[in-house]
UniProtKB/TrEMBL annotation:
GO terms for molecular function: nucleotide binding. It comes from Microlunatus antarcticus. Residues 12-132 form the Gfo/Idh/MocA-like oxidoreductase N-terminal domain. It holds the Pfam family GFO_IDH_MocA. InterPro entries: Gfo/Idh/MocA-like_OxRdtase_N, Gfo/Idh/MocA_Oxidoreductases, GFO_IDH_MocA-like_dom, NAD(P)-bd_dom_sf. Residues 142-285 form the GFO/IDH/MocA-like oxidoreductase domain. This is Putative dehydrogenase. It comes from the Bacteria. Transmembrane segments: none annotated.
Amino acid sequence: MSGTVTERPARLRAGVVGFGWAGQQHMDAYALHPDVELVAIAGLEDGPRATLGERYGLPEAGLFRGYQEMIDAARLDVISIATPTALHAPVALAALAAGVHVLSEKPLAESVDRASAMVGAAKAADRVLDVSFNHRRRGDVKMLKQVIDDGLLGEIYYAKAGWLRRSGIPGLGTWFTQKSLAGGGPMMDIGVHMLDMALHLMGEPTAEAVSAATYAEFGPRGRGGSSGAKVGARADGTGAYEVEDLSTAFVRLSGGATLLLEASWASYIERDQLYVVLYGSEGGAVLGSPEAWNLPQLSVLTELKGFPAELTPVLPADGNHAEAVDDFVAKVRSSSWADQHGEHLLTRSTIVEAAYRSAEQHREVVIDQP
Ligand SMILES: NC(=O)c1ccc[n+]([C@@H]2O[C@H](COP(=O)([O-])OP(=O)(O)OC[C@H]3O[C@@H](n4cnc5c(N)ncnc54)[C@H](O)[C@@H]3O)[C@@H](O)[C@H]2O)c1
């Protein structure tokens, strides 16, 4: 009998560092992916290590405390990093040095220096470096990107993007509110999702200057915590609170476009909001629902035969972390990684860092162009 036998490539061996909500999203996505085998997890907590090991059917040899032990022992092809932000760079550098492709949680790192070191290491090792920006996989964002790519908005010259919470500081006194571990407050945590969305939708412009302000009106007084406050919050509601709880930034982008960005973990507003508003030469768009921050909704403002018109496109399903992991796996499976070293991710780090510097110095910060 003649015929061609196509060999299926071996499944990628995946490891995940971090047992929190974010780490579990990556574990779920790898466990369900047909081209991937989740072989190892690492994290400091004994209880979750055992429970998650059981949930994903991992043997004792696949359960680790520290990330370095896992990288040394588990023969990984890919790793997801879902640790406190200040550990993203050390874990990524260790993994890349061992030839492992890296998918980091957002933000890439807490500083431009560390983010650049990660990109440099990905280049040197020629491995994929990516960030799982799950919110850009919302149905409304994906549809808006198609609308823009089809030219319906023309040239986008101004954008507003924000994520504001009524009471959503993620754990007073945990690593999220400590500068050395988190790097910053809501701008670093959720503002970076909105920045990613805006830059993605606007065609990846670079940044020229940032003028920003930050405020800490809730956290230092033990107010504004999320209902799911984590272990580490103190009984009296106070704790180490070293970051802002609201930031606002005005960003000048290449080509003359501008972006107004706001991010807040706590503020006296009616309800949580997530929005993007785009102003284009041929049309506009409003993304996000006034009813609920996590409800995808999109209006495209345009003209039909000279009449003002509003389109509400049918939205595809949300992709969430599963789609971010799918995209990462597809990049790893592609034949060339030369464009996958995460260079474009640096614009996000540059803008966030410039925003904090601007707020500290009370002036616009001009970004050096390469
Ligand atoms: N994309 C999203 O929607 C989203 C949502 C929440 C958090 N995040 C990001 O995910 C990351 C983790 O957030 P989280 O809320 O899951 O945090 P978390 O505090 O719940 O979990 C952090 C985990 O890191 C582990 N860890 C810390 N130091 C370690 C070390 N040296 N070696 C091994 N493991 C170590 C801890 O043991 C813990 O399991 C952060 O970067 C955060 O910004 C993203």
